[in-house]
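Hey, can you fold this one?
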Amino acid sequence: MKKIFTLFLLLTSINVYALSNAEVRDAIQQEIDSQTFPIKVDAQTEMTDIFLTTRGVTYEYKIGKLGDSLPSTRGLLSFIKRNSVNSYCNAPMFDWYKTNDVQMFYIYYDKSDSLIGMFKVDNDDCK
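Sure. Predicted structure:
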């Protein structure tokens, strides 16, 4: 009985994903291939590119203002990350990402292509 219990604990404590890294990348690549860039997100933001990482995806955005004209880049990125984490952890449309422990990276540039900032969202943010 102890052996069965130990085996059960061992198996349930290991992260088991539904898909391999390559399968995750292939699925994401199919979605990327169906997109035409840039994609207008809102009045000031457009998604300019999406590319693959080892087990995830990176989204690049451009904000239609110069970084110096933004009131607080740190505040802006904190707000965007909070919303992204909330969506990743709670929205049903992200269930596939959570099940497969997909990392999502976000990179923001200003109007002149200067880096505003970047952040990552993944399953660790949902704990």
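The chain has one domain: 19-126. Let me know if you want another pass with a different chain boundary.
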